[in-house]
Amino acid sequence: MSHSTLFPKDSILATQDSELDKVFIIVDGIIKLYQILPDGRRQIVGFLGPGDLLGSIKRNASVHSTAEAVTDVVACTFERSAFLEFLQDSPDLLFELLINASDEIESQHDHVILLGCKRPHERLAAFLLVMQQRWPVARGNGESAHIPMARADIADYLGLTVETVSRTFTRFKKLGFIALPRTNLVQFRDLAALYEVAGLTELPVRGISMGL
Amino acid sequence: MSHSTLFPKDSILATQDSELDKVFIIVDGIIKLYQILPDGRRQIVGFLGPGDLLGSIKRNASVHSTAEAVTDVVACTFERSAFLEFLQDSPDLLFELLINASDEIESQHDHVILLGCKRPHERLAAFLLVMQQRWPVARGNGESAHIPMARADIADYLGLTVETVSRTFTRFKKLGFIALPRTNLVQFRDLAALYEVAGLTELPVRGISMGL
DNA sequence: CGGGATGTTGAGGCAAGTCAATCTAAGTGG
DNA sequence: CCACTTAGATTGACTTGCCTCAACATCCCG
Fold it and tell me: From the C1' of D19, which residue's alpha carbon is nearest?
């Protein structure tokens, strides 16, 4: 009924505006969901990780975003038709999915607010804090987060340029908020300050994400 | 089990971060959903109109956005508990809601893309075109749209200032794309040009919106 | 017919984008 | 194992589009 598949880094799991007759549950790795405008501008609408769901529930299964593996990804693959049949027989799961979809709508609202009225340093601070909580990784001595995506990905997610993202990282370093032993390893030196900058008192607790 | 209520213009149907034990189905009028940051910045995350649904499905029914009537609103009101019971007994409706939630996620993706990488005139053009299709109103001689919300609402929805919105309206007038007999009546003079500017070939067809 | 709220227009500043150069890290092949 | 290559990240100089601030116009509503 389902089987596990390995998608190597940079491989495409689904393409913008094309049919997709599969539903994936991410087991390991990170996926980015993005759309590209005709002139090349790109917006990443979200990231998916272990436990998250990728695929359209709708009958006409056209997918609106491209899903690309940021790291090697292991995903559990279902045929969409089989997945839908299974759904028909278990209203509990159906309800569960609806709850998750509600959570996803809230997450997208957060993203809209981030893009609509926050400044670059607020955006990056919020991003780093969410990354830290969402996919905990092997930690060093203090609190730290592994950032699997490239600066360009962060930029396209936050609605900024790579240069601005890079400068903001440097600013955070100079302010003593973080340390950057490697480009993709953030060590938190002053979490309180980051929460302050991000305009958050606590991080929202949400269920699994649904990517489509 | 349910009853119709009139909410006068500017009245609040739900408040950010407070409990809401009701579920509304909008019968008439327009509602704006927004969040306000501690320092007063506001982002409108969406508008709801006839047929759209307002309220949380989750058990812990905390609402994350404020819902305010842009015009006089007539809404069909359900107790959330009763609504949930009714849902339990009709998996078809449950599935229907899941489809609508998927649509809503796509709409929010569109909004994210608009805020993340589009320029002011592209944002306004897209907004006007969506408004025209979404809630068709009594039309004049040519194609036109009634815009019930104030400039400040449009600005906060598009992530711009009122000044920029106003200037962009003026620009569209001068370019002959639209005419503005009244501030809230847009007559389309060159739809093709607006589609071009908005970067759209066709408008996405979506089901009802779900506001939470 | 006021008067306050809303919308428009103008002038100027600045934050973030653009362009360009440098630095770093990770491969790749001899 | 080390030189070479290349992609990614950082830093700097410059530009500009949108925001800010301010004045004025217009529209409602009492």
Answer: B161
Q: Provide the 8-state DSSP code for A38.
A: T
Q: Give the integer Cα–Cα distance in Å for B81 and B126.
A: 38
Nucleotide whose C1' lies closest to the alpha carbon of residue A10 = D7
State whether the Cα torsion A160-A161-A163-A166 is positive or negative.
Answer: positive
Which pLDDT does position A139 carry in this prediction?
A: 55
Give contacts of A196 with chain B, Cβ < 8 Å.
none
Quickly give A184 CA vs D7 C1' distance in Å.
15
Q: What is the Cα–Cα distance from B118 to A137, expressed in whole angstroms?
A: 35
Q: What is the full per-residue pLDDT of chain A (212 aa) written as tens digits? A: 678 999 999 999 999 999 999 999 999 999 999 999 999 999 999 999 999 999 998 877 788 999 999 999 999 999 999 999 998 889 899 999 999 999 999 999 999 999 999 999 999 999 999 999 988 765 555 589 999 999 999 999 999 999 999 999 999 999 999 999 999 999 999 999 999 999 999 888 888 999 98
* Distance between CA atoms of residues A150 and A106, nearest Å: 25
CB A63 within 8 A of CB A108: no
A162–B contact, CB cutoff 8 A:
no
Q: Please indicate whether, in this complex, the C-beta atoms of B43 and A111 are within 8 angstroms of each other.
A: no
- The nucleotide minimizing the C1' distance to residue B162's CA is C7
With an 8 Å Cβ cutoff, are A64 and B106 in contact? yes
B93's tokens: 């409706």
Q: Which residues of B touch A210 (CB under 8 A)?
A: 102, 105
B180 touches chain A (CB under 8 A): no
Scored b (16 or more CB within 10 A) or e, B197-212 reads bbbeeeeeeebbbbbb
What distance in Å separates the CA atoms of residue B57 and residue A178, rounded to the nearest whole number? 39
A111 and chain B: CB distance < 8 Å anywhere? yes
